[in-house]
Amino acid sequence: MIGKDKDRRVKFGIAGGTLPLTDTLVTMKFISPLILAAIFLSGCGGQAPAPEETDPSAVQTEQYGGSVATDEAISYESLLDLMKEAGEATVVVKARVESVCQTKGCWMTVKSDDPAVEETMFVQFEDYGFFMPKDLSGAEVIMAGMAYREVTTVEELRHYAQDEGQSAEEIAAITEPLDELKFMATGVVVTSR
């Protein structure tokens, strides 16, 4: 029980002591924030909440560039078969990232999940409009765009090798142009890392 005396003192019913009212207000202004801080911090130091249940069929994806109709994706092997007969093909294709430009993420190479399929595909991004994360090696991607074959010059191959972080000896060993499968991506979805 708290009561006021005529001399503006506050009585504390439990201890029976008294303090001048002005000292009590100053004390309360100082103690109240401390009490609030203690309550707040005690909530932060508690046990971590249990992880939320997630649907295992729900896939976390990352989108780069334009839209990609992922439900229309063909396998990398199907694209290789298609390119045996076609000079170019506009497709949506699923592949595994082999490497990414370590300078900017402005190109990547992709491959099949099947180790027996050795041919890789060099991927660039339309109008230099988007880049990929540099740590994407090993990730599964679905890409929309145009596949085509083109000869890559020695100078370009050496530039890409430098971007990839290859040694001076490895770069100097590149002496022949390469006829390779390429892809100009309009959009990329990363489906797993």
Secondary-structure blueprint:
Elements: E1 2-4, E2 9-12, E3 18-20, H1 21-44, E4 62-65, E5 74-75, H2 76-85, E6 88-100, E7 107-111, E8 121-125, E9 140-152, H3 154-163, H4 168-172, E10 178-192
Parallel strand pairs: 5-6, 8-10
Antiparallel strand pairs: 1-2, 2-3, 4-10, 6-7, 6-9, 7-8, 9-10
If you had to describe this structure to a student in words, what would you say it looks like?
By secondary structure, this protein is an alpha+beta fold. The chain folds into two domains: 42 residues, no CATH class; 131 residues, OB fold (Dihydrolipoamide Acetyltransferase, E2P). It is built from four helices and ten strands. The chain is globular, with a radius of gyration of 32 Å. The two termini are 64 Å apart. About 14% of the residues have low confidence.
CATH homologous superfamily of the largest domain, by name?
A: Nucleic acid-binding proteins
CATH topology of the largest domain: OB fold (Dihydrolipoamide Acetyltransferase, E2P)
From the spread of the alpha carbons, the general shape counts as globular
Strand content: 25-35%
Strand order of the largest sheet: 6-7-8-10-9
User: Number of helical runs?
Assistant: 4
The domain count comes to 2
Annotation keywords:
globular; three-stranded antiparallel sheet; 35% strand; 2 domains; 193 residues; five-stranded mixed barrel; OB fold (Dihydrolipoamide Acetyltransferase, E2P); alpha+beta
Question: In a nutshell, what does this entry contain?
Answer:
This protein is of the alpha+beta class and 193 residues long. The protein has four helices and ten strands.
